[in-house]
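task queued by scheduler; priority normal; single chain, no ligands, no partner chains; default sampling; output format set to structure tokens
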Amino acid sequence: MTLLMLAIGMSGARADPPGSSVFVTAIQWLEGTLLGTIATSIAILAVAATGMMTLAGRLPIRRGITVVVGCFILFGASGIVAGLERLARTGDASEPAPPVVSAETSPLSQPPRPQPGYDPYAGAAVPTR
């Protein structure tokens, strides 16, 4: 999507500032519409309806899995493209992961001991002793 926007943006006049092309604005609007709140709501409803139809036996499981995978691909497209670009740039799919740094945590303090005869489950109707 970004390469398409760059290609369309580069074909404009040289006097226009970057990003002022009508086509770039239209593509950004389309991207916002396809990946915005409305699209997320529609995808949630589609997955819920697919799940209900699959549970009721009215839809084959393969078709239900297709809907769910399609939603993952639609909303994960930017991550998929970033991974493919990194693969094309470095030529190595097994890039080492950054080391995990664990924070030093203090041990939890012990809660105070309850008084003898204390019942945490006694209601308001039970008198205290």
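post-processing summary
- DSSP finds five helices and no strands in the chain.
- The chain has a mean pLDDT of 76.
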